[in-house]
Each structure stands twice: as C-alpha cells, then as structure tokens.
Amino acid sequence: AQSVAQPEDQVNVAEGNPLTVKCTYSVSGNPYLFWYVQYPNRGLQFLLKYITGDNLVKGSYGFEAEFNKSQTSFHLKKPSALVSDSALYFCAVRDGGSSNTGKLIFGQGTTLQVKP
Amino acid sequence: KAGVTQTPRYLIKTRGQQVTLSCSPISGHRSVSWYQQTPGQGLQFLFEYFSETQRNKGNFPGRFSGRQFSNSRSEMNVSTLELGDSALYLCASSSGAGGYSYEQYFGPGTRLTVT
After folding, report:
1. Contact A104 B45 (CB under 8 A)
2. Which of A49, A65, B3, B105 has the greatest number of C-beta atoms within 10 Å?
3. What is the pLDDT of residues A16-32, one digit of tens each?
4. Which of B26, B51, B104, B105 to mutate to test the interface with A (most CBs of A within 10 A)?
5. pLDDT tens-digit readout, B10-59
6. Distance between CA B93 and CA B109 in Å, rounded?
C-alpha cells in the first residue's frame, strides 16, 4: 500500500537560514509526489510536484524539493527561510494502486516555525 | 481564474442531523475530490468525481456520499451526523482527465462542528 511519512512534527529554523522538511514515501510503481502548504484557517496551497525528470524540482515561493529514488525521499528545501514561511506543510503521493485517479495520500504534516 | 469555492465556510449541526456541503471547482476543471481533515487522523480521502461519475472512494461509512453535476460542481452529504464527523472538509479540483500527474487545487474548506 502507498504511504507517506513526515518524521518531524515540527521544524524550527531562524530567519535567513536554510530549511528542510523531510518526507519519505512508499509506492508500488512510479511515484508522483507533491508538496502542499496550509496556513491557519485556509485550504492547502500547491507548492510543487515531481512526476518525472530532474531530481531537483523548483516550485512556488522559492521552495524546491529533491527527489531521491534510492532513499525513497522527497525533502522540501528553501535556501533562506522567511518568517512568513511559518505554516503546516504536507507531503503527498498519488495512489498508484488505483489507475486513472487523482487520489492523494498525505503525510501527517510538519509544522514549520521560522523565528526572526 | 477564480479558485475553488466551498459553501458554507462554517457549519454547526446537532448529532443525528444531516448536512450538505457544496464545492465549485476552478473553471474548466472536471475532476473534484473531497478530503476530511482532523487533528487526529490528518487528511483522509473521501471520494473523487470525474464527469459526474465517482471514480474512487475512501474508507468512510455509507453515511458519507457525494455527487457531481454536469457543470462539474460537486456536493457531499453526511447523514446521521456523529460527534466524530466534526472536521474541516476540503474540496479539490484538477484539470487532468488522467488525474495522476496533475496537481489538485484546494478550496478554503468547510468547518463542520457537530454538537
């Protein structure tokens, strides 16, 4: 069965420092991976996705993610964190067990706290 | 383009009642999915619709149902509400018929509180 793990409930980083939010996955076929961000009382906002191609994917707001097939990881990164990046981040994988479906399986989420 | 809209944004219901939530996808999007978000269970998939057909269903009891109209708007219904149904219900739309490689765009959600 497909699954996603975000091993850290919370990540704390100082403004201006690089940040990493970790995600590992388990799928039966090719992974289709996504990162979303959620601000308080809001829905999820799409940041980036990996479908195929380059292992380094660039997304919105300066975020990028590195796909590593051997480690089954898809970590979210940003070179310089902003206080406004503080939010809840979700990693998700498309359910490859069901063909032709957009169903997403989400990790439990990681709270990113950026301190001034 | 306008984003995904959900109505109502907030809802308070009593146990045993039923509720209907509405979702209007981004113009041109034909796929609509619903998710339930709770602090304990996180984000869980409810169902997905494409061209008025349910394409996939999550592990929820039959009290949870949905449908999609010809204009791609979708509704979900929860009958005989239980306290545990209190959650943020998120709707997401996607442009791709295949679904798998296309990102989903989420609405702001409907916050349902069951008392």
Report:
1. yes
2. A65
3. 999 999 999 998 888 88
4. B104
5. 999 999 999 999 999 999 898 999 999 999 999 999 999 998 999 889 99
6. 13
